[in-house]
Amino acid sequence: LETNLEFTDFEKKIWSKVMSYQTNKPEEIYDALLTLKDEATSKKQHELLSMHLCRLWAMQHVQVPDSSTTPENYGFSELSPPAAAYYRCQQAKLVSINQLRQASELSHLAYHSLSNDDLPALRIWLAYDYIETATEAGAFDDAIMAAQLSIQIAKANDLAEWEGETLARLALIQSALGNFEQALSTNSEALQLIKQPDNLFETQANRAYILMTANRLTESKEIYRALLNQNKGIDDFKYLIAGINLTGIYFSLGMYDENRKLTNELLELAIRYPGSYVLAYTKVAMANTLLQQGDKEAAESMFLQARLWFEENQVLEPLSRFLTEWADNLYRSGFYLEAFTALRDSMKLTQDIDASRQKENATLTNALITAEQQKRELLLYEQQQQQREAKLVQKQLELRLTLTILTAAFLLIFSIVMAYKRVQKTNQLLSEKNQHLDYASNHDPLTNVYNRRYFESFVLSRENSGDKAFVLLIDIDHFKKVNDVYGHKAGDEVLIVVSKRLASRLRSTECIVRWGGEEFLIFIDRPDQKEQCIQIVQRVLSEINSSPIYVNNQHISVTISIGFMALTLETISEFEIKLKKIDSFLYQAKEQGRNRAIGYLDEHLEKLTIESTAVEL
Ligand SMILES: Nc1nc2c(ncn2[C@@H]2O[C@H](COP(=O)(O)OP(=O)(O)OP(=O)(O)O)[C@@H](O)[C@H]2O)c(=O)[nH]1
């Protein structure tokens, strides 16, 4: 279930600065941490840094509340709901103004607001802090869980000293639960890891205390004696702490002489620290010693002085224990009434403590509920954030999809248009080509008049129409000579000019056909009258012979001979017979001297010869 518990580089930097508390003052660490502000990039990094800044600020401003400094000043995000780091900051501020009950509530809240998303460096700090809060509230399960988390993260980061300190605290919890063997074993583990002299002293004192609680007084006594020897003339407080506990053991073991000697020595030393807890504790030891010696008055006075200190400083739990011992001692010395009073006071105090514990428990429960609510809020907030992000991504996707569709549609339309244009162009080219082919298949390439192929289909389309027509078959006279004299190319030119001249007078209903080499056919659809046919023939003859043809700077005079016939369009075979007849008329025209026309104006009339401008019957 656990995520990666190793510190990142950023966390390591923070850690090394905050752990320099033995050589640096809080304000120095505070300033050192400020230099890391720009390196915090994520929200969690900001929270970790802000928690330490806030905590160090509170340490510098103990008993001087500064309402102008809100948590937001430490970079806690206003956007997201408060998190564990924020509560730890608030806790530090409450401690600084001595609001310990509220501070302890916030300690609960801070620890229970932790999530796997929080940085290991924040989690280890808050977990360790919480061990004490939870123990004081009697929430031993919570305390053990917090200790385990602290140990786990310490192990993941090779923080031996931290792991040792946590184990030392865990041992005390185990001892309080009556698991003395486990407590001693945990304490041994701690002793192997701890190197710092202060921590080492405390852990050894813990061991002696556990042994004392387990009623292993001789072992306990040896440790206390060793600690006493180590600190004599070196550290008064350590000497006093070890000494006070040792007097208790001497007393319990009936070693009254040693007890008296030590107690006197301790009191002499403790008096140098008026108002201190060590003085109060020493006075309790002294009171018991005096009572044992029979000096009841001095003993009672001494105990009262100590009792006042405990009451003033609300250190009630040890006081209730001392009262019980005191009552026991009074009873043994025969002061039954005093013993009863002391015992009654002790019980009253125990009741008060229990009530206070219950309050503390209620506080803890409240804190748990609040933490759960906060976690839910945080989760909701993150979900909303994720939803917002997801929506954004979806919108971007939709936009991209729309763009893709639009692009695809555009490309499709574009390609369709292009394909359409290509088809159009191809169709146009094809139709042009077809037109061209059509033209080429129906026309004579030299003169551009219709060819015989066209005429055949034309006649076929008119088969049996019964329409009247006038057909002229024209042949250029002595054309071979033109070729011979002026060249074949000039001959071609002559053919072109002749065809143009023949076509110049034709109407849309009339057509001209290149019939052979120098032969042309003129087809006149539904001629009006015979006179008009004669005029046509005359006009055709004069159109050619009236002016020479100008080719290659030379004038070539040309005449034509014509065979003609006015006819009715019936069957093709009949038409072919008639064409042969026309051909024979043409032949006759040649025979009769050329430059003339011979034919029928009516199939039933006689043959007619037309000479240039004159008409001969
Ligand atoms: N330059 C040219 N000459 C052609 C073409 N087609 C046919 N000819 C020539 O036309 C001439 C026809 O000669 P012939 O049929 O002997 O008759 P002719 O010389 O016209 O004499 P008559 O018809 O008897 O008056 C031939 O010499 C062909 O070579 C052509 O397309 N171009």
Helical content (DSSP H or I, runs of 4+): 55-70%
Name of the level-1 CATH class of the domain at 452-616:
Alpha Beta
Radius of gyration, Cα only, in angstroms?
Answer: 65 Å
Q: How would you classify the helix and strand content by structural class? A: alpha+beta
> How many DSSP-defined strands?
9
What's the CATH H-level superfamily name of the domain at 452-616? Reverse transcriptase/Diguanylate cyclase domain
- % residues in beta strands: 5-15%
| Terminal Cα span | 131 Å
Number of helices: 22
Described by strand count, sense and barrel closure, the largest sheet is: 7 strands, mixed
Poorly predicted runs: none
CATH architecture of the domain at 452-616: 2-Layer Sandwich
**Spatial shape:** rod-shaped
Ligand names: guanosine-5'-triphosphate
Q: Give the integer mean of the pLDDT values.
A: 87
CATH-defined fold name of the domain at 452-616: Alpha-Beta Plaits
Task: Give the strand order of the largest sheet, numbering strands 1, 2, ... along the chain.
Answer: 2-3-1-6-7-8-9
